[in-house]
Amino acid sequence: MKNKILGLVFILCGVALIVGGVIAEIAWLAFCFGTVIVGILLLFFMPIILLAPLTFGWAIGIGLIGKGFELIE
């Protein structure tokens, strides 16, 4: 029973990290393209940086969700 509750907590934390990553990505894009020069420079020279917050939140969140499902089973 303890593992099932811990697994559910892991899943909820993973979902929260994914949602937080999406929110951080929206805020990051708003900042980058709100300051037009920074947005254009990033778009031409380092476009991968524009997706950095989403990538970190998504990767860690999916890992936690997977571990949570392992603990539930």
Task: Characterize the structure shown.
It contains three helices and no strands. The protein has 73 residues and is mainly α. The chain has one domain (2-72). Helix 1 packs across helix 2 and helix 1 runs antiparallel to helix 3 (52-72). The model has no long low-confidence stretch (mean pLDDT 89).
What is the element layout, followed by pairings?
Layout (H helix, E strand, L loop, with lengths): L1 H33 L1 H10 L6 H21 L1
Properties at a glance:
73 residues; 88% helix; 0% strand
Give the H and E element order: HHH
| Class derived from helix and strand content | mainly alpha
Classify the beta-strand content into a percent band.
Answer: under 5%
The number of strands is 0
Gyration radius over CA: 16 Å
Give a short synopsis of this structure:
Helix content is 88%, strand content 0%. It is an all-alpha fold and 73 residues long. The chain has one domain (2-72).
